[in-house]
Amino acid sequence: MTPDARRAVLRQSVSVAVATGLYGISFGALSVVAGLSTTQTMALSLLMFSGGSQFAFIGVIGAGGAAGAAIATAGLLGARNGLYGPQVTPLLAAHGWRKPLAAQLTIDESTAVATAQPDPAAGRLGFWWTGVGVFVMWNLFTLLGALLGDALGDPRKYGLDAAAAAAFLALVWPRLADGLARLVAGAAVAVALALTPFTPAGVPVLLAAVVAIVVGLVAPQEETQEETREPA
Fold first, then answer.
1. Per-residue pLDDT tens digits for 33-76
2. How confident is the model at residue 81, as a pLDDT?
3. Which end of the chain has the lower number of beta carbons within 10 A, N or C?
4. Does residue 106 share a domain with residue 43?
5. Closest among 221, 232, 127, 225 to 171, alpha carbons compared
6. Given this model, what pLDDT does residue 92 score?
7. Do 183 and 139 belong together in one domain?
8. What's the Cα-to-Cα distance from 19 to each of 78, 102, 116, 122, 153, rounded to whole Å?
9. What is the CA radius of gyration of the chain?
């Protein structure tokens, strides 16, 4: 990997880590408002380490729901991280203590940065820098949000959720280079938006992922069939 390529990966990783980490302020403040202590809030960020699942958890608790319902909702939404395993496992080839660490750091952002790189070395660098960077920044800003609490007012008014979404979109956009990729992305978005008002948190994301999985299974078969039909 050239020095310029390395710097490009690091810039991407750091920018994503900062944008995502800032959103942790919202989680910390909202978690305390929902009734969790600072210690409980930090435990969620350190151990669960899945922003969507954490927001789902405190959403159920804040609405007066039972702990079991909160855990089930958070687990359902976090199940998407398991879908990333087949993508990053061959890339990282992690062994020993690095394997559980990689599992903990396998999130939307680290997977997106890793799989967006042109070669395996850059992918590994992007995964580790993004994963560790997001973990550190997310927990630091979670603590800050929990300590400031009510002094922040409604943290959603600062638009930090939009910053995190924009950073993730910037990673995905260059990969929508062909018609099939754009079609899959559009269909997944449509499925998620259509189901969001009617299904529990986490279900729209998982079913949207099914769209990509089905296309991934069908498209290679169609290409193979077309190749076999071509004249020699």
1. 888 999 999 999 999 998 888 888 888 888 787 888 888 878 87
2. 85
3. C
4. yes
5. 127
6. 93
7. no
8. 20, 21, 18, 21, 20
9. 19
Do 165 and 200 belong together in one domain? Answer: no
User: Domain ends where: 153, 175, 197?
Assistant: 175
Residues 100 and 9 in one domain: yes
Q: Are residues 52 and 74 in the same domain?
A: yes
Q: Domain span at residue 133?
A: 3-175
Answer yes or no: are the C-beta atoms of 45 and 139 closer than 8 Å: yes
Ramachandran sector of residue 201 (left: φ over 0; alpha: ψ -120 to 50; beta: rest)? beta
Q: How much is the pLDDT for 197?
A: 84
pTM of structure? 0.73
Top mean pLDDT of 94-108, 137-151, 187-201 is at: 94-108
Structural domains counted in the chain: 2
- Does 118 share its domain with 227? no
Mean pLDDT of 15-32: 88
